From TrEMBL, chain A:
<dbReference type="GO" id="GO:0051537">
    <property type="term" value="F:2 iron, 2 sulfur cluster binding"/>
</dbReference>
<dbReference type="GO" id="GO:0016491">
    <property type="term" value="F:oxidoreductase activity"/>
</dbReference>
<keyword id="KW-0411">Iron-sulfur</keyword>
<dbReference type="GO" id="GO:0046872">
    <property type="term" value="F:metal ion binding"/>
</dbReference>
<comment type="similarity">
    <text>Belongs to the complex I 24 kDa subunit family.</text>
</comment>
<dbReference type="Pfam" id="PF01257">
    <property type="entry name" value="2Fe-2S_thioredx"/>
</dbReference>
<keyword id="KW-0479">Metal-binding</keyword>
<dbReference type="InterPro" id="IPR002023">
    <property type="entry name" value="NuoE-like"/>
</dbReference>
<feature type="binding site">
    <location>
        <position position="122"/>
    </location>
    <ligand>
        <name>[2Fe-2S] cluster</name>
    </ligand>
</feature>
UniProtKB/TrEMBL annotation, chain B:
<dbReference type="InterPro" id="IPR036249">
    <property type="entry name" value="Thioredoxin-like_sf"/>
</dbReference>
<keyword id="KW-0479">Metal-binding</keyword>
<dbReference type="InterPro" id="IPR011538">
    <property type="entry name" value="Nuo51_FMN-bd"/>
</dbReference>
<keyword id="KW-0004">4Fe-4S</keyword>
<dbReference type="Pfam" id="PF01512">
    <property type="entry name" value="Complex1_51K"/>
</dbReference>
<keyword id="KW-0411">Iron-sulfur</keyword>
<dbReference type="InterPro" id="IPR019575">
    <property type="entry name" value="Nuop51_4Fe4S-bd"/>
</dbReference>
<dbReference type="GO" id="GO:0051539">
    <property type="term" value="F:4 iron, 4 sulfur cluster binding"/>
</dbReference>
<keyword id="KW-0408">Iron</keyword>
C-alpha cells in the first residue's frame, strides 16, 4: 500500500504540547487525528518514544477505539446511527439506502474520496431519530430523500 | 429590546435551528428591527423544535416548530409582541408536557444562555457551592447522603456512600471524575444538560471536590457529542475567569481544577473502571473490583466517579437541603429522574419527574402513543442492556426496585418505543451483535459468547434445530450473566431473553410452548 504523505512536524508539535499531561495518549491521538484526519502508522514510533511506551501498546490503543483510524478518511465522514431508537424509526432502511447511494459499505470511502461511512452507536439525538452526523453537524429525522439532499449539498461545497 | 430564544441544543440544530436563527437575524435586519437573539438549551419538547421563544411581559411565548420559510410570516404576525400565528403555542411554561414536570436538575435548561455565567447566577446558580464553602467536608457528604441520591448512570449506588469512602481514604491526591460517556441508546439527558446548563455540572463537581478533598476533576466526554464539548469548554473558561474554578475558589483558599477529556467511541468506556483505564491513556479494559475506584481509582488514587446527572443534581441538594430533594420520589428511589422518551413516539423528549410515574403515563400521557399511529408493542428501558417490555408491563412505576422485580432495569431512564412492525428476534440478535462490537475482550463469555449468540439467534430465526438452539441461547445467556466482569456481558441477556420471553412468537415459538 502506498504511504500517504503526512506532516511530521505537525505530529511532533501535537506530541510536544500534550506529552506531559497525565494520561496523555488519548489527547495526543485526538490531536493527531484532528490535524491529519487519521493517525498514520508511521507516527506510532514517535508517540511511543515520547511517552515511553512500546509501539505495541500505542497500536493497541489506536485499534481498540472505533473513532481512531489508521488510513485517511474521505473529505467528509458520515456517521450513521445504528442504535435502537433510530432502528425504531427506520434506520435499517436508511442504512441500506446510504450504502447503495454511496456505493460503499461501512468503514469504506467512496472512489472519488468524498465520503467515508462509519456506523455509530448513538448520537444522543434519539428524540429526532433516525440521525446521522457529518463532521460535527448532526441531522435528525433523516429520510432517504433528505439524506440525498444533504450529501448533494455537501458535494457542491466540497468542489 | 426584545429577546428571542432559539436553542443551540444539538437536537434542535439537527432539525435546522441554526438556519432558522440566521433567517430571523436576516429578516430582522431587513425590517430594521433590533432584537437580542439568545441561544438557549432545549426545553426538551423535540417535536416542537426548532422552538422560538419571545420574552414578553406575559412571560415567554413559544412558537414552533419553526422552519425558515415561516420566518417572514412570524414578523408579519408581530411575534416579537407575542402576536397570533398558526405556530403560536402560548406561554412556554403553560404547555402541558412542560408544565406537568418536576424539574429540579433541569430547572434552568432552556431558560438560560448555557454559557452565560451571569444567567446562571440570575437563575440561582452557584448557591449550592457558596453554602458548601462554609461547610465541613463531612457535612457536605451528609447532605448528599440524606438526599437519598443514587447514581443516575444505571447502577443506582448511593452517591453519599461513595463520597464517604473517598473522604475517609487518606491520600494527598484525589480525583473527581465525571462519567459523561452516555452511550446508551435512547438516553440523552447528559447531553442536554451539558449543552443546556454546563455550569450545573461544573458546580456539582466543584462541590464534590470540596466534599472529599479532591483538587482535580475530569469530565470524560464521548467524542460523539461535539456540541456538548463546545458548551463545556466555554463554560469552564468562564468559570475560571470569574474565580469559580482554579486555585482559590471565590477567595476561599480551596482549589479545584477541571478538564474535559474526549473518549474515542468505545461503549464499554461508560463502565467506570474501563473509563478510568481510558483516561489513563490505555485500552478501555474493565478492571477487577476490588479495589473500588473510591479507594484506588484514577492513577491509583481515591476517586469519586459519578454520572453527569448525579453530579448535576448536587447543586440543588446543597442549595435547598437533602430533605427537599428526598421529598420527591417513592420507596428507595428518591428525588427526580430525567426520563428520556424516544424511538417510535409521537411526542419524544425529556421529562423530569419524581420517581414513581408509570411507563404507561410516560408513553401515552406525555408521548401521545406511537409516531406511526400503530400500537406500541415493545418498549426498551435503560439502554441497549435494558429489557424489552410488553404492554402487560406498562403499569410498572419508574422505580429502581419495581423494575428489578420484573427482571428489567431502569438504568439511565431512557425509554425507547417500538410499534407492532418490530421483529423482536432481530432486536435480540442486535443485542448480541452490539455486545460483540463493543466488548472490551477481557472476559471470554462476552468476547466470544456474543459472537456465538448472534450465530445461535440466526439459526433460530432460520428454523435450524430451533428447540436445541433455544436451549443453547438460554444456556449461553446464563454464562454471560454470571461469568462477565462488567455490565456489558453481564446484562446483554436482558434484551435478548426479555425479547424471547415476552415475544416468543417472533422466534417461531408459540406462546403456549414458551419456556418463560
Amino acid at each position: 500500500m502506498a504511504e500517504h504523505e503526512w506532516d511530521r512536524e505537525q505530529v511532533q508539535e501535537v506530541i510536544r504540547s500534550n506529552k506531559d499531561k497525565p494520561g496523555a495518549l488519548l489527547p495526543i491521538l485526538h490531536g493527531i487525528q484532528d490535524a491529519l484526519g487519521y493517525v498514520p502508522p508511521d507516527s506510532v514510533p514517535l508517540i511511543a518514544g515520547a511517552l515511553n511506551l512500546s509501539r505495541a501498546e500505542v497500536h493497541g490503543v489506536i485499534s481498540f477505539y472505533h473513532y481512531f483510524r489508521s488510513t485517511p478518511p474521505g473529505k467528509r465522514t458520515i456517521y450513521l446511527c445504528r442504535a435502537e431508537s433510530c432502528q425504531a424509526m427506520g434506520s435499517a432502511a436508511l442504512e441500506s439506502h446510504a450504502k447503495d447511494r454511496l456505493n460503499i459499505d461501512y468503514h469504506e470511502t467512496t472512489g472519488d474520496g468524498t465520503f467515508s461511512l462509519e456506523p455509530v452507536y448513538c448520537l444522543g439525538n434519539c428524540a429526532c431519530s433516525p440521525s446521522i452526523m457529518i463532521g460535527k453537524d448532526v441531522y435528525g429525522r433523516v429520510t432517504a430523500d433528505s439524506f440525498d439532499d444533504i450529501i448533494e449539498n455537501m458535494q457542491v461545497d466540497a468542489q | 429590546m426584545t429577546t428571542v430564544y432559539i436553542s443551540r441544543d444539538s437536537g434542535a440544530l439537527s432539525l435546522g435551528a441554526e438556519q432558522v436563527a440566521a433567517a430571523l437575524r436576516a429578516e430582522a435586519a431587513k425590517r430594521n428591527i433590533h432584537c437580542n437573539l439568545v441561544r438557549n438549551g432545549s426545553r426538551g419538547m423535540y417535536w416542537l423544535e426548532p422552538l422560538v421563544e419571545v420574552a414578553t411581559d406575559r412571560g415567554r411565548i413559544a412558537y414552533g416548530p419553526v422552519r425558515v420559510r415561516d420566518v417572514p410570516s412570524l414578523f408579519e404576525a408581530d411575534f416579537l409582541q407575542g402576536g397570533s400565528h398558526p405556530l403560536r403555542l402560548g406561554p412556554t411554561d403553560e404547555i402541558p408536557y412542560f408544565k406537568n414536570q418536576e424539574r429540579l436538575t433541569f430547572a434552568r435548561v432552556g431558560a438560560t444562555d448555557p454559557v452565560s455565567l451571569e444567567d446562571y447566577l440570575t437563575y440561582e446558580g452557584y448557591r449550592g457551592l457558596r453554602r458548601a464553602l462554609d461547610m465541613a467536608p463531612s457535612a457536605i457528604v451528609d447532605e448528599v447522603t440524606n438526599s437519598g441520591l443514587r447514581g443516575r448512570g444505571g447502577a443506582a449506588f448511593p452517591t453519599g456512600i461513595k463520597w464517604r469512602t473517598v473522604l475517609n481514604t487518606p491520600s494527598d491526591i484525589k480525583y473527581i471524575v465525571c462519567n459523561a460517556d452516555e452511550g446508551d441508546s435512547g438516553t440523552f439527558s447528559d447531553r442536554m444538560i451539558m449543552e443546556g446548563d454546563p455550569f450545573v455540572l461544573i458546580e456539582g463537581m466543584t462541590i464534590a471536590g470540596l466534599a472529599v478533598g479532591a483538587a482535580q476533576g475530569y469530565i470524560y466526554l464521548r467524542v460523539e457529542y461535539p456540541h456538548a464539548h463546545r458548551a463545556l469548554t466555554e463554560a469552564i473558561e468562564a468559570a475560571y475567569r470569574s474565580g469559580y474554578l482554579g486555585k482559590d475558589i471565590l477567595g476561599s483558599g480551596k482549589r479545584f481544577d477541571l478538564e474535559v477529556r474526549l473518549g474515542a467511541g468505545a461503549y464499554v468506556c461508560g463502565e467506570e473502571t474501563s473509563l478510568l483505564e481510558s483516561l489513563e491513556g490505555k485500552r478501555g479494559l474493565v478492571r477487577f473490583k476490588p479495589p473500588l475506584p473510591a479507594i484506588e481509582g484514577l492513577f491509583g488514587q481515591p476517586t469519586v466517579i459519578n454520572n453527569v446527572i448525579s453530579l448535576a443534581s448536587v447543586p440543588i441538594i446543597l442549595d435547598k437541603g437533602g430533605e427537599y430533594y428526598r421529598d420527591y420520589g417513592m420507596g428507595r428511589s428518591r428525588g427526580t429522574l430525567p426520563i428520556q422518551l424516544a424511538g417510535n413516539i409521537k411526542y419524544p423528549g425529556l421529562i423530569e419527574k419524581a420517581f414513581g410515574v408509570t411507563l404507561r403515563e410516560i408513553l401515552y400521557d406525555y408521548g401521545g402513543g406511537s409516531a406511526s399511529g400503530r400500537p406500541i408493542r415493545a418498549v426498551q428501558v435503560g439502554g441497549p442492556l435494558g429489557a424489552y417490555l410488553p404492554e402487560s408491563r406498562f403499569d410498572t412505576p419508574l422505580d429502581y426496585e419495581a423494575f428489578s422485580a420484573i427482571w428489567a432495569v431502569l438504568g439511565h431512564g431512557g425509554v425507547v418505543a417500538f410499534d407492532d412492525t418490530v421483529d423482536m428476534a432481530r432486536m435480540a440478535r442486535y443485542g448480541m451483535e452490539f455486545c460483540a462490537v463493543e466488548s472490551c475482550g477481557k472476559c471470554t463469555p462476552c468476547r466470544i459468547g456474543s459472537t456465538r449468540g448472534v450465530e445461535v439467534i440466526d439459526k433460530i430465526m432460520s428454523g435450524i434445530d430451533r428447540e436445541k438452539n433455544l436451549v443453547l441461547l438460554r444456556d449461553l445467556s446464563d454464562t454471560l450473566l454470571n461469568g462477565s466482569l462488567c455490565a456489558l456481558g453481564g446484562m446483554t441477556p436482558y434484551p435478548v431473553l426479555s425479547a424471547l420471553n415476552h415475544f416468543p412468537e417472533d422466534f417461531g415459538v408459540s406462546a403456549a410452548e414458551k419456556v418463560a
